[in-house]
Amino acid sequence: MPAEIIDGKQIAREIREELKREVERLKAQGVTPGLGVVLVGDDPASQSYVSSKEKACEQLGMYSDDNRLPPETTQEELLELVDKMNIDPNIHGILVQLPLPGHIDEKIVINAISPDKDVDGFHPVTIGRMVIGDTCFLSCTPHGIWQLLIRSGVEMSGAHVVVVGRSNIVGKPIANMLYQKKEHANATVTICHTRTKDIAYHTRQADIVIAAAGRPDTITADMIKQGATIIDVGINRIDDPTRKRGYRLVGDVDFEGCSRKAGLITPVPGGVGPMTITMLLYNTIESAKATLQS
Ligand code: BQF
After folding, report:
1. Which of 63, 92, 122, 276 is most buried as measured by Cβ atoms within 10 A of its Cβ?
2. H or E segment at 285?
3. How much of the chain, in percent, has pLDDT values that exceed 70?
4. Are 158 and 186 in contact (CB under 8 A)?
5. Domains in the chain and their CATH numbers?
6. Per-residue exposure over 35-54, b if at least 16 CB sit within 10 Å of its own CB, e if not
7. CA dist 114 to 26, 54, 142, Å?
8. For 71-115, what is each residue's pLDDT tens digit?
C-alpha cells in the first residue's frame, strides 16, 4: 500500500485560517501583530523567501516592515536597524533573512536581536530556553515539522525518531523538541550526521525519519522500515531545462521509492516548506499577544 502523503500546504492553510482569527481578535484589542523584515543583498532565493513571508503577513492582516538593504551594507548599519526594531512597539518579531553577506558576522547580528522579538528562534537565549523546556519561540522549520506530525496523528511518545543532519536551524532543534518531557514529544531520538558509521543501520529502526542533510537521495527505500513516517526537510535545486525557472526542487528523500514503503511521507515542494513560513507568523502573533498580558 502506498504511503499517505502529508499535505503541508493544506495543513499550513488550516493553521493560517486559525491565525487569521487570532489577528482579528488582537486588532480588536488595539494590537496589530508586526514583523520587521530585513534582507541584505540580492540573493534570488532569499528575495523570494522574504517576499513570501511579507505576502503571508498581509494575507493575515498583519503589519510587516520591509527593509531591503544593498549588499554593501555594513554590519554597523545592520545592527543599528536591529536596535531600532528592538525598541519599536509596532514590531513584535524581527526577521533577519539568512544567509547574510560574508562581511557580516551572523552570530553578532543574531545576538543583537532582543530574545523577546526572536521569532526565528535562533538567539542563544531562545535555544537555551528550548533545551531546558521553558516556553519560548520555537524555531520555524522544526516547529513546522512538529505541527505536521501532531496534526497527522503521528504518535511521538516512545517512538524512535532518527534525525539525519545536525544543523543549528533544523537537526539540533528538532531533536531537542521531540525528546522533551512534554505532550506530543517523549520520543527516543538518534542524530545521524556525516561521520555516522552506518546511517541505514539507524534509519531502519526508526518509526520516524527526519531527513535534513541537504543532499538528494540521502534516504532511499532500503533504508527505512515498512510503515515508517518520513519527513523530508531538504530543498535542493536540480537543473531541469524543461522547467521555466531552469531547475526543480527535490528533497533529501527518494520520494518515488520511499512512498511505496512508508506509512506517511511529506513531499517536496509542499511539505515542510509552507509550514516554515506559517510558524514565523505564529511566533509573531504569540509575541504580539505577550505585549497585552504584560
Ligand atoms: C515548498 C530556507 C535554506 C536557507 C534559508 C515553501 C519555502 C520553501 C519551500 C520557504 C527556507 C526554506 C526559507 C516551500 C523559507 C523554507 O513548498 O516546498 C516555502 O519559503 N522557506 C528561508 O526563509 O530561508 C532559508 C532554506
Report:
1. 92
2. helix 272-293
3. 100
4. yes
5. 30-114 (3.40.50.10860), 140-274 (3.40.50.720)
6. bbbbbbbebeebeebbeebb
7. 22, 21, 21
8. 999 999 999 999 999 999 999 999 999 999 999 999 999 999 999
Residue 264, pLDDT score: 98
Cβ 122 under 6 angstroms from ligand 1: no
Rounded distance, CA 132 to CA 69, Å? 36
Residue range 246-266: average pLDDT? 97
52 lines ligand 1 (CB under 6 A): yes
The distance of Cα 185 from the centroid of its chain, to the nearest Å, equals: 17
167 lines ligand 1 (CB under 6 A): no
* Atom 16 (ligand 1) nearest CA: 273
The best mutation among 53, 276, 278, 284 to test binding of ligand 1, ranked by most ligand atoms within 8 Å of the C-beta, falls on 276
Per-residue pLDDT tens digits for 198-220: 999 999 999 999 999 999 999 99
Q: Is the CB of 234 under 6 A from ligand 1?
A: no
> What's the whole-model pTM score?
0.97
Mean pLDDT value of segment 128-143: 98
With cell 516556553, the residue in question is 135
Cα of 100 vs centre of ligand 1, distance in Å, is 15
**Which burial class, exposed, middle or buried, applies to 118 when counting CB atoms under 10 A from its CB (0-12, 13-18, 19+)?**
buried
Q: What percent of the chain has pLDDT over 90?
A: 99
* Residue ranges in 102-258 assigned as alpha helix (H): 106-112, 124-132, 140-151, 171-179, 199-203, 255-258
Cβ of 236 closer than 6 Å to ligand 1, yes or no, is no
Ligand 1 geometric centre to CA of 277 (Å): 8
Mean local confidence (pLDDT), 260-265: 98
Whose Cα sits closest to atom 18 in ligand 1?
269
Is the pLDDT score of 294 beyond 80? no
Mean pLDDT, the chain, rounded, equals 97
